[in-house]
């Protein structure tokens, strides 16, 4: 039998009776899981509301650092600005999209570089160009 909102009342009466009949044996997590499954069956949208989402502590960053995406992609126009900053002049068809990323690279001489790097998006296997070096995070 469905109620006027389309909820299958018999289903939930049976499920709730099963839970209630064994309630003294549920751990808090088991009970929460069982009730969450019922809530999800009824309306998964409700579980996305702020009240039911976990709260997270803000991530603290060391002084002098900023949180940035581990990868950033430059479009053709932004790549042109990057090229212009280096003093090189190129025609539009001579370069493509570039991916910026933060991390460590090792050059052909074994020198390690940590900072902002650039790779051609279509040809990442060709390696990376270090853009700005900075000290890596202290763990």
Oligomerization:
single chain
The strand line-up of the biggest sheet is: 1-2-3-4
List the domain count as a whole number: 2
Count, helices: 3
Determine the fraction of residues in helical runs and give it as a percent range.
25-40%
Query: Distance between the terminal alpha carbons, to the nearest Å?
Result: 59 Å
Name the helix and strand elements from N-terminus to C-terminus, one letter apiece: HHEHEEE
| Overall pLDDT confidence | 80
Biggest sheet character:
4 strands, antiparallel
Alpha carbon gyration radius:
27 Å
Q: What's the total number of strands?
A: 4
Low-confidence stretches: none
Structural class of the secondary elements?
Answer: alpha+beta
Shape: elongated
Polypeptide structure, described:
- It is a single chain.
- The protein has helices spanning 9-21, 28-42, 76-86; strands spanning 71-74, 98-106, 112-120, 129-133.
- It is elongated, with a radius of gyration of 27 Å.
- The chain folds into 2 domains: 9-52, no CATH class; 71-133, no CATH class.
- It is α+β, with helices and mostly antiparallel strands.
- Strands 1-2-3-4 form a 4-stranded antiparallel beta sheet.
- A hairpin with an 8-residue loop joins β3 and β4.
- The N and C termini lie far apart (59 Å).
- The model has no long low-confidence stretch (mean pLDDT 80).
- It has 3 helices and 4 strands.
Short description, anyone?
This protein has 139 residues and is α+β, with helices and mostly antiparallel strands. It has three helices and four strands.
Please write out the topology:
Elements lengths: L8 H13 L6 H15 L28 E4 L1 H11 L11 E9 L5 E9 L8 E5 L6
Antiparallel strand pairs: 1-2, 2-3, 3-4
């Amino acid at each position: 039998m469905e109620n006027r909102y389309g909820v299958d009342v018999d289903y939930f009466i049976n499920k709730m009776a099963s839970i209630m009949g064994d309630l003294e044996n549920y751990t808090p997590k088991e009970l929460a899981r069982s009730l969450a499954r019922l809530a999800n069956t009824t309306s998964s949208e409700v579980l996305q509301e702020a009240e039911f989402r976990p709260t997270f502590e803000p991530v603290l960053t060391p002084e002098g650092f900023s949180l940035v995406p581990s990868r950033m992609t430059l479009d053709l126009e932004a790549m042109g600005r990057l090229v212009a900053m280096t003093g090189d002049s190129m025609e539009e068809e001579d370069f493509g999209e570039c991916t910026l990323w933060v991390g460590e690279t090792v050059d052909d001489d074994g020198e390690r570089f940590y900072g902002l790097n650039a790779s051609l998006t279509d040809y990442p296997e060709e390696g990376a160009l270090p853009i700005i070096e900075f000290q890596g995070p202290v763990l």
